[in-house]
Amino acid sequence: MVRGLKLRVVVENTASMVDPRIWAQHGLCLFLEADLGSECMKILSDTGTSPELTLHNADALNLDLSDLDLIFLSHGHYDHTGGLIGILNRMNKRVPVLAHPEIFIPKLKSRPFLKFIGPPFSQAEAEDAGAVMLYSRSPVVLAPGLMTTGEVGRKEPFENVEGFLTVKDGLYSQDAIPDDQAIIANIEGRGLAVIAGCAHAGIINTIRHAQNIMGVEDLYAVIGGFHLGGAGEARIASTAEALLGLDPEIVRPGHCTGARAVCLLMDVLGDRCQPLASGDSIVL
Fold it and tell me: Which of 6, 76, 108, 224 could form a disulfide with 33 if both were Cys (CB 3.0 to 4.6 A apart)?
């Protein structure tokens, strides 16, 4: 079990007003420190859109990226992977990079027109920069009480993926983004903390999947992107209602959640819900 978890928001769409040195950019990067008792595991969850901004904010926050134990890529979109090569070059050592095996398949956006939105580098380029690529479709135990979700089951009827394409066997097809994953921590005396990238699988699907594979019902915190930016009112309302029923103490939506959804979540969940911003520090 994890004794405590500290998160620093390195990159997010908005920036905290507390420190003018912190910049904002569309993307997500979280620096996690998991207190395991005698050890502390340091994980970078996603890498933002550009190495320049991610490294600038890491320096402003006095984060030593060379001390990382693991880099986790929640899925293969540019705004979560774009900073990787610059970070690896800064680290100047080989480091495990954990991702889904489909992270490098073609990632395309169909709206408002066809556009490539995948990682701005190849697997070979990542490995040349020092990445030890680790691929898994299934959950991976990182430490006692700390794991990845692996592929998330899609069960909620109101949570669906639209507007993304890929190419397989020479054919265009809808991309359900099966590579979407999250990090779960079972925090001693509190319950589960679910750290999502974009939650393309649906944030409620992600939470319930986490509860199932951890065997823990108590939900303490939900943090990250909820991918409701382009969602209709019905899906946003259903998400808020489901979150209220799950009863987490801390909800920190950001990145792709969208302003409309954040406002409704704050209205429904009250003070327990606060939006993310670059520069934020969250202690769980």
Answer: 6
CA dist 261 and 244 (Å) reads 14
E-strand ranges in 75-123 read: 95-99, 108-109, 115-116
Neighbour-count burial for 150-162, b at 16+ CB within 10 Å, e otherwise: bbbebebebbebe
Element (DSSP H or E) covering residue 265 = helix 259-269
Confidence of residue 5 (pLDDT cuts 50, 70, 90): very high
* CA distance readout (Å), 72 to 22, 178, 280: 23, 16, 20
* DSSP character at residue 117: -
Read off the pLDDT of residues 119-139 as tens digits, 9 standing for 90 and up. 999 999 999 999 999 999 999
The CATH number given to whatever domain includes residue 37 is 3.60.15.10
pTM for this entry? 0.97
Phi-psi region of 37 (alpha: psi -120 to 50; beta: other; left: phi over 0): left
How many separate domains does the chain show?
1
101 pLDDT band, cuts 50/70/90, is very high
